[in-house]
Structures are given as structure tokens and as C-alpha cells.
């Protein structure tokens, strides 16, 4: 049988401070069972202990208030578990990113930096299917993942001939001004793309190229080394930055790319003056 207890005792039962309980009340997350109309004192039912403990655990997991509300309001166990699983996946992704950042920091502190292996390539104009958008840097990750998935799905469904690795070109303002246009593309001579995908020609040009191994989150080091090389050699040229996303297995399907894996490979291509 549930009984009413004052906020102080409920605080002790749940290991939630009075302040936290008041905040959760104001936010509509955990409302008291009864509030004294004369002095405003809060009373909680003992059958609210389980809910309070869930809230505490969810907050310990880094859940925001809206997420906790959604979980508590879930209509059934499957819906609640789906929300919790989605949050755990986000936490795991954050932990992977943290591990990548720690590894990159250790590399930066290394007294023996790896040698930079820059090559030069000339790319011809390239027929391709593409998805393009002006995007802000805060939204780039989500846009990139969604657009790449749509592009790969379209290519597989149409079974088009793919003539090279997946790639992207972007305006420098996407980095410098945190907003710019990026185009993702799959090289193909096919001319009948589905809605939302365009048949385009990717311009050619001369590039200094450096291959980055690992998560794209750590690509800033490769960009720094390549940019330093181009600047010191005084060979830089205006134009879009180009990336080529290589399959992990060189003999595999060109569409089989896995971003974030340690064995991922991205060719970073910086425009340079012609060496002809």
C-alpha cells in the first residue's frame, strides 16, 4: 500500500536532493502526489520511488530532460526500450569519438611525427550521380551520413556501373565560415537517376593528395599536413576541396565504405597549380 511521505524523507529514500526534486516538479518530470495548499510543502507517494530511481539512472546516463520525459511517457515496454537503445547507441558513438580524440592527442604529443607522403594526381572531368546542398558545419555530420546512404542505396537499386570511388567536393567556406555547399557523388555514366539524385559532371583538375587512415573525426591532422606542404611549396590554387572515400578492401565493391573504422581510408585532394 502506497503512503505519503514529506519531501525530506522522499529525498532520503531516492538519493535525490530536495533541490533536484523541486526542479523535476517544475519541469513536469516528477510531480508530487500532493502539495499542501497552505504552505506549499510537497508530499510524495512511496509508489513513486521506482520512478524517481529511474530518473536518477537516466540522468546518470547523460539523458536530457526531454529524453527522460519521452521514456517515462512511453506507452509500452517496447517503445521505452527503443528509446533507451537509441540513447545507448549515441553514448557508444560518443565514447568511440572520445577514444579517437585521445589517440589523436597521443599522436600529436609524439616526438617522432610520421613522414608525410604527398602525391600529385590529375583528375579528368567525371560524370557522376550526386546529392548536393548548402549546409552548416553543425549539421554536416547528419547531412553527410544521410546523403551518402541515399546515394549508395540509389546506386545499388539501379545497379549502375560505378567507375571509381565515392567522393565529395566542398567549398572552403564550409570550414572557414561554418557554412557552404558540399556535393557527394558516385562516379557513373548512368543518366537516369532517381528523384533527389542529380546526374552531373564533377570538374577535373590538378591536386596534391594525402591519404588519411582512420576516423574522419581525426582528418584535421591530415588536412594540416597537406595544407602545410602545399603552402610551403607555394603550389596552392583556388577551387573546391576534394575527398575520395576508398573501400577498405581495394578489391571490394567501391560502394563498400565504412567510416569511423580504424582501417578507413580517405584521399584528401588539395587543388594545386598545374605541374605540366
From TrEMBL:
Keyword set includes DNA-binding: yes
Keyword DNA-binding found: yes
Coiled coil: none
Pfam families to which the protein is assigned, alphabetical: GyrI-like, MerR_1
Keywords (A to Z) from UniProt: DNA-binding
CDD domains: HTH_BmrR (cd01107)
GO molecular function, one term: DNA binding
Record-annotated HTH merR-type domain positions: 4-74
InterPro entries: AraC_E-bd, DNA-bd_dom_put_sf, GyrI-like, MerR-type_HTH_dom, MerR_fam, Reg_factor_effector_dom_sf
Protein name: MerR family transcriptional regulator
Organism: Microlunatus endophyticus
Amino acid at each position: 500500500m502506497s503512503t505519503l511521505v514529506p519531501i525530506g524523507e522522499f529525498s532520503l529514500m531516492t538519493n535525490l536532493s530536495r533541490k533536484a526534486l523541486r526542479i523535476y516538479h517544475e519541469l513536469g518530470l516528477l510531480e508530487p502526489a500532493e502539495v499542501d495548499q497552505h504552505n506549499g510543502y510537497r508530499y510524495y507517494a512511496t509508489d513513486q520511488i521506482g520512478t524517481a530511481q529511474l530518473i536518477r539512472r537516466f540522468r546518470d546516463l547523460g539523458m536530457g530532460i526531454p529524453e527522460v520525459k519521452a521514456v517515462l511517457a512511453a506507452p509500452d515496454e517496447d517503445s521505452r526500450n527503443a528509446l533507451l537503445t537509441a540513447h545507448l547507441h549515441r553514448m557508444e558513438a560518443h565514447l568511440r569519438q572520445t577514444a579517437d580524440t585521445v589517440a589523436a592527442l597521443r599522436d600529436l604529443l609524439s616526438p617522432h611525427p610520421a613522414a608525410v607522403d604527398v602525391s600529385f594526381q590529375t583528375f579528368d572531368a567525371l560524370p557522376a550521380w550526386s546529392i548536393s546542398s548548402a549546409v552548416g558545419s553543425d549539421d554536416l555530420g547528419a547531412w553527410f551520413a544521410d546523403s551518402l546512404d541515399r546515394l549508395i542505396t540509389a546506386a545499388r537499386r539501379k545497379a549502375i556501373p560505378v567507375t571509381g570511388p565515392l567522393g565529395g567536393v566542398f567549398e572552403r567556406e564550409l570550414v572557414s565560415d561554418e557554412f557552404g555547399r558540399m556535393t557527394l557523388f558516385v562516379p557513373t555514366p548512368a543518366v537516369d537517376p532517381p528523384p533527389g539524385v542529380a546526374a552531373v559532371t564533377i570538374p577535373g583538375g590538378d591536386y596534391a593528395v594525402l591519404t588519411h587512415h582512420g576516423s574522419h573525426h581525426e582528418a584535421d591532422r591530415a588536412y594540416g599536413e597537406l595544407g602545410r606542404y602545399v603552402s610551403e611549396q607555394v603550389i596552392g590554387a583556388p577551387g573546391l576541396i576534394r575527398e575520395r572515400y576508398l573501400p577498405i578492401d581495394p578489391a571490394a565493391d567501391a560502394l563498400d565504405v565504412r567510416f569511423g573504422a580504424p582501417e578507413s581510408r580517405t584521399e584528401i585532394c588539395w587543388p594545386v597549380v598545374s605541374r605540366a
